[in-house]
Structure formats: C-alpha cells, structure tokens
C-alpha cells in the first residue's frame, strides 16, 4: 500500500519453487482479476486461480498458506496475497498481490460510499438495506457453522468459543484482552502431548 | 481533514484485532467509529458492512467508505494503509519464520487453540451486528432463511445478500 518506495528486489526469491519466473506485473494482474471477480468469498477464487489455472502453488501449499492466514491477524484474502506474492517474488510480489486484490473492491466501495452518503435516506434504499443487513447476519452465521465443522478439533472447543462470545458481548472485555486470555487458555488446552508429537509434526 | 491521524490510529488498532476475519474487529469498530469518533451512525456501519458483502475482493473494503466520509480521498487512502499495512507486514515476516517452525510442536497447538477463539470472535461480531440489523420477525426470517439455504445448498453468498435487498424492498417499503 504505502510501501511503493521499496527498492526493486530482484533476488530470485530464496524460496521460489516455481519452474517459470513470474513477473511482478503478472502477480498484480492475477490478483487484480481475483479482486474484481471474487463475489461471495475470496478463498475458492484464490484456489481456482493460483492452484488450478496458474500452477503458481500446489494444493498442499495452498492449504498450508490458508491455515497461516487464518491464524494471523488480517483478512484471509490479503494475507494470502502477501504469502503467495512473497513466495513468487519476495517483498515486491507481496505488494503487487495485495494492491491487486484490494484495488477493485476498494474503488467500488469508495463509489458506493459516496452514493450511499447522498442517497442513503431514500425509502427504497432504506428498505433494501434492511434486507441486505439481515441477509448478511445469516451469511456470517453460516460461516460460523461451516468453520466450526472444518477447523475445530475437539468438542471442548465450543466452550472456548462460548467464552469468547461472553467475554466480548456480555463482559465487554474488548477483543484484545479476550484474545489473550481465552487464546492462551485454548492454546494450553491444545498443548503438545508426547504421543501426539509425531502426528503433530506431520 | 484533521480526522486523518485519528483514522490511522483507529484502523491500525482494528487491523490487529482481525484474527480469523474482519468481523472479529466489528464490536470494537462499532465503539470507535460510531460512539467515540462519530464518523457514522450504527445503522450506517451495518449498511456499509452488509453492502460490502456483495463487493468482490477482501470483505472489509467498506472501511474505505468510512475513511472517505471522515477525511475525503486522503482519508480513504489512509484507512486502507492503516488497516492492511500492519497485518501485511506481519504476514510477510511470519511467512518466512513459519516454515522454520514446521517441527515446533506448539505450532499445531497455536493453530488448534486459535481456531475456536477466532470463530467465537466472528460470532461475537455477528451478535453485535444482529442487535442493529435484526429488528423484528421479517429481518429475523431473512437471516434464518439465508443461514438455512447456505447450509443446505452450494450457492454464491453474494447472490443471497442481493436477494436480501429484493426481499427488503418487497417487505419494508412503506405502502
């Protein structure tokens, strides 16, 4: 974003495992296309484009990068752009990726924001937005359900989930304190155990 | 124009909270942008977020609109950099370190432990939003309808949010 002044890093990206060198411009363009077409959630589009179409990363790398993206602060979409860009072309690749994926949606929401500011009070827009907001709540709930099915590894995890919700919404502890307190408890609960060590390291 | 330092501060802080997704930061976003700085109202925040679900790309691009309202084009750019810059740098640094930690047993513990907390944050954000978005039987029915359809069928969520707009116009237009 602001890091446009970064010097061109042309070192052949220490970790690049792809046979063909990918140019910064290609990275930008590919993420721009993803950023402009990924309606309804970025992850499937990322996979289709980076793994299936371009072969820039394989499926195993994709899953690995996605799990890193999910454990870190930041949106999956932008974290993935940074990770894939880094793998292909180092720092400049990351910048190209994140710029590309943010640009279309950013310009769109900039325009929508101006329009909404001026016309948001119209009756039909108010009515439509009431429906849109309710639908968005349903969408987030569906995400909660599908993530729970996919990424929870123990039934006790639902207790940590409930603790998080109560800490934020009832006790108003704030997200940072909740994250630290419940996060540490949950990580300790999932602490490495001796017999798991081999499987944990794959 | 002097809203820009505040915008940068708020959105840098919010960016660090987005563990597991943008919605994790929603409760604090409401407090800071609506109650503390009064850049917009709670219904406006909900509307922008929801409309943002129909836009392609990262699903928190609605922050651009908040920046634009509070500080014009510069505000929009400042918000983008503040919100995506720090986490991008962090992801970049971690990506390099993470590979070396492949055999560190706590790596799996961290991933398994953060999973329920990040889903909990998502749910907490959802409840915060529902307080403003669900106001009666009709809006409740739309939310439950979308939830059930998504659990049952493979359909693009953006279409369902668009469908919510159509149902909204049909049900909430004053006759």
Structure, explained:
Helix content of chain A is 71%, strand content 0%. By secondary structure, chain A is an all-alpha fold. Chain A has 2 domains: 3-119, no CATH class; 123-200, no CATH class. The longest helix of chain A has 44 residues, at 76-119. Chain B has 7 helices and no strands. In chain B, helix 1 packs across helix 4 and helix 6 runs antiparallel to helix 7 (157-172). Chain B has one domain (4-133).
Q: Write down the overall mean pLDDT of chain A.
A: 85
- N- to C-terminal distance of chain A: 36 Å
N-to-C SSE string of chain B, H for helix and E for strand: HHHHHHH
Distance between the termini of chain B: 42 Å
In the predicted model, the low-confidence regions of chain B spanning at least 5 consecutive residues are none
Largest sheet of chain A: none
Relative helix content of chain B:
over 70%
Q: SS-based structural class of chain B? A: mainly alpha
Strand content of chain B: under 5%
The tally of domains of chain B stands at 1
Supply the key terms:
heterodimer, A: 202 residues, mainly alpha, flat, disordered N terminus, B: 175 residues, globular
Task: Summarize the entry for a quick read.
The complex is a heterodimer of chains A (202) and B (175). Chain A has 202 residues and is mainly alpha-helical.
Write the layout of secondary structure elements.
The complex is a heterodimer of chains A (202) and B (175).
Chain A: H1 24-37, H2 43-53, H3 59-71, H4 76-119, H5 123-151, H6 157-170, H7 175-189, H8 197-200
Chain B: H1 4-17, H2 26-36, H3 42-52, H4 63-100, H5 105-133, H6 137-152, H7 157-172
């Amino acid at each position: 974003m602001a890091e446009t002044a970064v010097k061109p890093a042309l070192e052949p990206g220490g970790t690049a495992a792809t046979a063909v060198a990918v140019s910064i411009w290609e990275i930008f363009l590919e993420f721009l296309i993803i950023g402009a077409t990924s309606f309804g959630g970025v992850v499937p589009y990322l996979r289709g484009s980076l793994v299936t179409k371009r072969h820039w990363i394989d499926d195993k790398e994709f899953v690995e990068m996605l799990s890193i993206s999910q454990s870190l602060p930041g949106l999956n979409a932008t974290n993935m752009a940074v990770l894939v860009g880094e793998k292909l072309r180092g720092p400049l690749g990351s910048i190209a990726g994140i710029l590309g994926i943010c640009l279309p949606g950013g310009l769109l929401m900039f325009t929508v924001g101006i329009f909404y500011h001026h016309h948001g009070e119209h009756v039909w827009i108010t009515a439509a937005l009431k429906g849109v907001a309710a639908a968005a709540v349903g969408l987030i709930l569906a995400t909660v359900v599908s993530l729970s099915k996919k990424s929870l590894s123990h039934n006790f995890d639902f207790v940590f989930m409930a603790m998080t919700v109560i800490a934020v919404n009832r006790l108003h502890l704030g997200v940072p304190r909740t994250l630290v307190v419940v996060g540490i408890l949950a990580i300790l609960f999932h602490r490495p155990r001796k017999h798991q060590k081999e499987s944990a390291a794959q | 124009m002097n809203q820009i330092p505040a915008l940068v501060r708020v959105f840098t802080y919010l960016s660090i909270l987005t563990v597991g997704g943008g919605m994790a930061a929603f409760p604090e976003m409401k407090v800071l942008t609506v109650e503390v700085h009064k850049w917009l109202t709670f219904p406006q925040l909900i509307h922008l977020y929801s409309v943002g679900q129909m836009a392609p790309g990262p699903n928190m691009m609605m922050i651009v609109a908040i920046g634009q309202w509070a500080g014009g084009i510069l505000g929009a750019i400042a918000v983008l950099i503040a919100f995506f810059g720090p986490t991008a740098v962090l992801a970049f640094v971690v990506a390099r370190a993470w590979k070396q930690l492949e055999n560190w047993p706590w790596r799996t513990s961290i991933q398994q432990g953060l999973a329920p907390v990040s889903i909990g944050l998502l749910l907490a954000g959802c409840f915060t939003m529902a307080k403003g978005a669900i106001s009666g039987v009709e809006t409740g029915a739309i939310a439950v309808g979308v939830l059930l359809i998504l659990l049952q069928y493979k359909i693009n969520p953006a279409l369902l949010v668009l469908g919510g707009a159509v149902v909204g116009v049909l049900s909430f237009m004053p006759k």
